[in-house]
Every structure is written in C-alpha cells, then in structure tokens.
Amino acid sequence: MPSKEKTARPVAKKKTPTKSSTTKLKDQIETLKFDISSHEDKYLRLKAEFDNYRRRKQEETSNMFKYDGESVIKQFLTVLDDLDRLAKAAEENGKSNIEKIKEGIDLIVNKITKRFSEREVVPFTAPGDLVDPELHDALMMRLEEGKKENEILEVFEKGYRYKDRVIRHAKVVVNQTPS
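-> structure tokens emitted (179 positions)
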C-alpha cells in the first residue's frame, strides 16, 4: 500500500501589517487629528470674532438711533443762546433800542433758516398759491373780490417739508367765491 504521507500544505499565513505601515497610519491619524483640531480652533476664533463684530455694529446702530438728534440739538443751542441774549437786551434797553432788537431777531431767523436748509428742511406756501389738501390746512374761508377760488389769502403758519416728506402742513386762510 502506498504510504499516505501527509504532504504538508503550506498554511496561508495571515498578513500582519508591518510596524512601519502601522506607524505610518498612526502618524497619519495624528496628523489628521491635529488638522481637525486646528480647523476647529480657527472656526471657533472666526465665529467669536464675527459675534463680536455683530455685537459692536448692533451697539453702534443702537447708539446712532438713540442719539440721532444730537447734532441738530447742538446746532440749535447757539440759536437758543442768541434768543436769551436778545431777551436780556430787550429787558435792559426797553423801547429805546427797538431797531437793534429787530436786527437781532432777523439774525436769529436767518441762522435758523440756514440750519434748516443744511438739513434739507424747506418751507412752502405763500399768499397767492392755490390750496392743496396734501399740503395745507384751511383754518378760515374769506371772500375777497378779484381773487381766484381756493387761493391762499393769508398764511398763519408756514408748512415745512423734510426731504420728500411734509412734516408740518401750512395753516392758511382761503378765498371762497360766492356760490
């Protein structure tokens, strides 16, 4: 009988990674972890910087609206000072200096008009204009011969427009023709 020798078959050995490839993978993992950490840090810093920027801008906007009229008030303080000086001069000089007081009033009115024009505030309405309900409030009606119907005869208070908005309607007396 033939001998049945067992022939040794080569056993498939499991390939185990070599130390060098394991080390390489660990190094790559460490590098990637460091990169992720670095990107997270940059992201957090950028987010914090943006949050600070947004907060600063919000405060600036809030303060801008809170103190919106400050520059206008400062400009009109000088006008108020002029009025105080005028009142004091009127008390001291009485009726003897009426012409100087009139000059002082004219200077103050001119100063106010200049400040208004710098801020794009313009007056409107004069006697002779026709009534526009969008611009005028008719306080009285009167009949005057030779005048057109709805013609403004007298202006009690001028109207004012700020840029494209009417901020005060003019108060006027209007001509009414007989029916």
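The longest helix spans residues 19-66.
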